[in-house]
Amino acid sequence: MKKMIIAKKIVILLIGIVLVIGVILTGNYSLSAEDKECYESAVKLQENIDKIGFKNFKLTDYPIAFCDGKHDYVMIPSGSSYCIQKRKPVLDTFAATAYEVNDHYEVIVPTKELMSSFMGVAGGMETAVAGDSGYNQSEQVATIWHEGFHCWQFDNFEDNISELNGGHDFDEEDYGEELIVKECDENDKVAALYKEGTELLKKATTQNDKEEIRRLMLQYKDIQEKRNALLDEMVQKLEDFYTSVEGSACYIEAMCCKYLDKKRFESYYMENINSYIKGSSKYYYSGMAQCMILDNLDSTWKASYDFSQPLINIIYKKLGI
Fold this sequence. Notes:
By secondary structure, this protein is an alpha+beta fold.
């Protein structure tokens, strides 16, 4: 069965369909120099990503397909270079994702031109028409690494991840979004407790003193226990899945951005830790924060992490709480 890994799904708003069609119709159906440069820049980051410490995580282990709406252009690593294969798109929608193709995982991303159009639509028609969505090469490179991390996760830890998600069927169209909105976002008390907890997570990401981190995490655990008492176990499992699986991928994405654009890292990723976002996206940033907290406690934690338990449990164990 082909598995769509939940990751940065692109929703094309009705108001933007004409813009997207315009990009497709005017395309020349060959991979642009800009996309080739994005791929090459992503591969060049490998040495930096190696220092993060996830064992045997290599971007070049996976083909990377750029979709322009008419074709996929698949970058196939070959020694120190690569070749490009052109094919019909394997997806019938636009998405930045990791996807199983013929029994192997691939990174699939819209071309940078299409991604810029999507981001422009999300930012409003005026921005999109002007062609200044703010979506740049560093963001495309970070997205590629995010999805590459999902390929690595499922290649190595698929059974553990399946256990972690508590039996949720991700063949469902909304990937648990409706459940999260209903049980977590529309319950004011649950939402308020989540927000209170993320304030503590954000503070802990800036701490190097273990006792101070412990103090903050004791408060966080108390809040989490109060919040979990209001939630069904299946909802908690869904949150664990997103926080650990997507959160760690967001962490990789953020680290890429930190190497390439430190200002955006601070203004976007760090600021989103305590921003309340309806649906699953908020867990990307709280999970990212938990990875950063673990870095402050023990930078080697990633070498043995196997997604068999939530990130927060690792934090509690390292702090003895």
